Amino acid sequence: MHGGFGAWNHWVRNISALEKDFNVLAVDLPGCGDSSDAPKPYTAESLATIISSSLDDVLGEHVSFDLIAFSFGGFLSGLIAHLQKQRINSVTLIGSPILGLTGDGPANDLIEVPKELSEVEKKPMYLQNLRRLMVYKPESADELALTIHIENMAKARLRSRGIARTSILAESLKNLPCSLHCLFGEKDTTLYPGLDGIEKYVRDIHPSASFDIVENAGHWVLFEASEKVNTILSQILNKN
Question: What is the CATH number of the domain that holds 78?
């Protein structure tokens, strides 16, 4: 599952590597990409229920699976795991602020892009936001990354930050019915003020959870350091 204001293409550098050995389903969350809108008012619980029901439709009722979630997708993953407790193997969180997205830090220092501007005028503003929020190295915000970002922002209707500022992910990870794996970019600005509190929380509730930090990578670590992330994900999935 992808991040907020995103779509399946957040995984564009991961799908081809993983599908060599696994059946990969990369979905658009409700109100994102090409998916239908979620009924309002929506909550983390209602969104998780929609996705869980969709899994039943696509996979059938008895096929086991592993859930990998990036950023906002992670806020729904624990809830989905509890709904799918009879057959879920693992949850892997990538760049999800487990303790909730704070109101401070550089992830909140984004430019509001006025709708009335032309696409040419919007492009440098989107690029600046992409570099501030999603990647660590400026060169990682390449033409592909920018194209994905602009396309996803144009299609996004789900407003996810309100949910991301809650403790729903932290609470839903308690008594998780499967194994837990966490993966973060070392320079992820959404984890302000840092990873220490997140790692301590994870260790306290899941002592056996894996916790990987990828150096010199930002929030969109699955794009910026895709080879390293693909290796870690393959190891997790093969173990399961």
Answer: 3.40.50.1820
